[in-house]
Amino acid sequence: MAKGLPYFKFTPTEWMTGDIAFESFELQGCFISICALYWQRDGNLSLEDLSKRIKNDDLISQLTDRFFSVNNGYISVKFLDEQCSERNNTTVTNSKNGKKEGFTQALQT
Length: 109
Hints:
Blueprint lengths: L11 H6 L7 H16 L6 H8 L2 H7 L5 E3 L2 E3 L1 H31 L1
Helix pairs in contact: 2-4
């Protein structure tokens, strides 16, 4: 994700009206830091690495199963996974279209 796209979509309205807005600023800051790290690591972030980085297991546990899930020791942030999937689909489509265009141009020459 970070290599192909150095940013993720952040919608202030969704942030301000979502469940995260009812949490402390400390928890909100922790979550957005997790999102940035998750994106930078292309969605490959273990709970162990997260604990080393955040150094506050209580904050992590408050976020777990509410704002991200854990499967086989790795976290998953749904809205970022959706963006990654969308990005991958767009890349595949653009690649196919580029190949078709190149083939068409080759036939015309």
